[in-house]
Amino acid sequence: VLLQASGGGLVQPGGSLILSCAASGFTLGYDAIGWFREAPGKEREGVSCINRRDGSTYYRNSVKGRFTISGDNGKNTVYLRMNNLKPEGTAVYYCNARDGPIDYWGKGTLVTVSS
Q1: Is residue 114 a contact partner of residue 12, using CB atoms and an 8 Å limit?
Q2: Confidence category of residue 53, pLDDT binned at 50, 70, 90
Q3: Residue 10: CA atoms inside 13 Å, Cβ hemisphere, count?
Q4: Residues 2, 60: Cα–Cα separation, whole Å
Q5: Which helix (H) or strand (E) holds 66?
C-alpha cells in the first residue's frame, strides 16, 4: 500500500493550496481516505475525510467553509482544496486511508502559512 501526497508549500494568509493523495496497492479498496495534520508542538488531528463508497464527508469545525475534499475513485486519488488559509493551518499534512480497522499513512507534506 502506498499513499503519495503532494501539493504542500508556502502560502500567504488568505491564500489557497490544493493537496492531493494518490492511493495504490489496495486489493479490495479502502473505506475512507482523508487528511490529518500535525502542527509544531501539537498532536496530530483529523482535518477532513471522504467515504469512498457513499461520498459522505467530514470536516473539523475550524476548516468548515474553507476546505473542500473530493475524491476520484477511478484514479484512487483524493484532493483537499484549502482556501483562506490561516497561520494556524501551518502543519505537516498526512494522507490517511482506512481499510476496516487498519490505518495507512503517507509521508507528510508541509504546509506553511506565513507572510
Answers
A1: yes
A2: confident
A3: 2
A4: 25
A5: none
DSSP reduced 3-state for 75: coil
The neighbour count for residue 58, using CB atoms within 10 Å, is 14
2-6/17-24 β-pairing: antiparallel
Amino acid in the structure at residue 32? A
61-107 pLDDT per residue, tens: 999 999 999 988 788 899 999 999 999 999 999 999 999 899 999 99
- Find out whether 24 and 2 touch, Cβ atoms under 8 Å: yes
Instruction: Give tens-digit pLDDT for 60-69.
Output: 999 999 999 9
**Amino acid found at 45:** E
Helix, strand counts (H, E) of the chain: 0, 11
